[in-house]
């Protein structure tokens, strides 16, 4: 029966740099001796991995693939482990991560600032390495976004209320790592034109009141802070109500 074999340790997904060596683990218990066979899937093709008949599957990461392990007993019972993803990041092949990296989250793709019209789609991207693969949580103005828990933040039709300072937290059992904070401005075409004028180097001389806000949330010996991101955004709104032209910068 199917209950004759029980998987006691499932393999876990990982996100690693190209060339990184590690092992996927699968453990099972059964009434007889057990046999293991690993499979991989890439581009919708599932293949048995020749010689991969141990509980541990050693891998040197070259390309992103899916893996599963089949466990058989001597009575022709079999079960498959969970499918797991080995996500390989090519962009950090030179010098990253540090040699003493132990699988803690490490951001390798930060979101970029966005300026878009009302009704257009808003998309922000973040990616991190980690063993196990990190989970993601997006924030806007320091507030957790309940339904934005993927690498890609997606809002199909952005509204002015979606404007703010966004950042993403990648976390796993070893810790967490924050992405860069980026400003998103959603508005009518005319107001977006004013935004360009408010950027450093483009401030017109005729504007009498200009406020420069700088929020530092990254310190060498302290964890990333949430308050500066939130404070810069709220203070910017207050100053704009007082007719200031505001330039807000982070880190």
How would you describe the overall organization of this protein?
The protein has 251 residues and is mainly beta. The chain folds into three domains: 6-89, Sandwich (Immunoglobulin-like), CATH 2.60.40.10; 96-197, Immunoglobulin-like, CATH 2.60.40.10; 205-250, no CATH class. It has two helices and 22 strands. It is elongated and about 80 Å long. The protein has helices at 189-197, 227-241, and strands at residues 5-9, 14-17, 21-25, 27-30, 35-42, 45-48, 56-60, 65-72, 78-80, 84-89, 106-109, 114-117, 122-125, 127-129, 135-140, 143-144, 152-155, 164-172, 175-178, 182-187, 210-215, 245-250. The longest helix is centred in the last third of the chain and has 15 residues, at 227-241. Strand 18 and strand 19 (175-178) form a beta hairpin. The termini are far apart. The strands form seven sheets. Strands 2, 5, 6, 8, 9 and 10 form a six-stranded mixed sheet that branches. Residues 3-81, 105-183 form the Ig-like domain. InterPro entries: Caspase-like_dom_sf (IPR029030), Caspase-related_regulators (IPR052039), Ig-like_dom (IPR007110), Ig-like_dom_sf (IPR036179), Ig-like_fold (IPR013783), Ig_sub (IPR003599), Ig_sub2 (IPR003598).
